[in-house]
Amino acid sequence: MLLSDWKAEKTGEIGSLAGSSLAAVVLVALGASTALAVTEGGGGASGTCLLRPSWSEGGELVTSPYGVDRTGRASAGFHQGLDIVNSAGRGDPIYAGVNGKVQLVRSGSGGNYVVTETGNQRFIYMHLDRFGKDAEVGKSINPDSEVGKMGSSGANAVHIHLGMLMRGDALRGSGTSSRVWASRGGNGGTKGSQPLTSQEISSAVPDAWYFVNPEPFLHHRIKFRPGVLSAYGGQMSRPDGMTLPKSCSVSSDEWQSSPYSSNGGVSQSEGMGSTLIGGAGTSDYATDTVNNSERSFYADIARQGHAGLEMSTQKARAGRRELDVALGLLILGELKGK
């Protein structure tokens, strides 16, 4: 589109909004791409963040991160959620945090748990002490709907396990390199399986559901319990000791190392040594993780190339948004002078 055409189109749209709020006028002026970035975080597979704290904030800490191989530390396999504790503890009300509906209410190996659905996302609240007054399958919910009470059902200690699922049609075009797992039945965990490859993510089944990291979708950032991050060695990095910034989208830079763990998630300093089999325990998995210097060399080149391409793409998007902002402000200035 020519600059003059774009300007004429936006001027017409803004003129039709006479009497509307300034926010509405600015969003139109900035262009669709910028409006999307403002409302949904931009980049990755966008969705909805928790609109309110879903539990009491006092003393809250993440005690077990998402995506780490916990073999040798807790239950075997990869952790497909965040474990969070707080000072209130058992009986603390757990709220839906979003608008949507209750998709599942069940008691099973994960204790009492509720799954809520909003658009292309599902949130899982696990290990509840008991179900809340709004925990009815099919019931419409809002952020203040109570789905349960914090507890320890199916677990050894009181905490809330927060899981998040994203539908395949929203995930497949994200280009994310995050740790993602296919869900069993749209709500069940698959912690014994390996994370999907980038190619598998791009080929995600549109109406299937996939586990993603809940961190960017939290209402606010939360501290990790001291020592938790170092306990998992190089599996993840959070330099400030906090969960990822709130972006309401699947992040693509969460992991600094390969999605495969070579030692069951236990750091070398803990004296567990190194094993090639790790959590999966198969010869194929061992072959995939063999420390081959030539393979590592080419893998490093590939990672560097991908990082460079992603940075260039982000700069291009930022440049387009800056252009939209500049042109939008110019149009607003001209309208103000008429």
UniProtKB/TrEMBL annotation:
Q: Which residues form the signal peptide?
A: none
Q: According to the UniProt record, where is the region Disordered? A: 176-198, 245-269
Domain named M23ase beta-sheet core: residues? 78-169
The biased composition feature labelled Polar residues covers 246-269
Q: Which InterPro entries match?
A: Cell_wall_metabolism_enzyme, Dup_hybrid_motif, M23ase_b-sheet_dom
Pfam families, from UniProt? Peptidase_M23 (PF01551)
Q: What is this protein called?
A: M23 family metallopeptidase
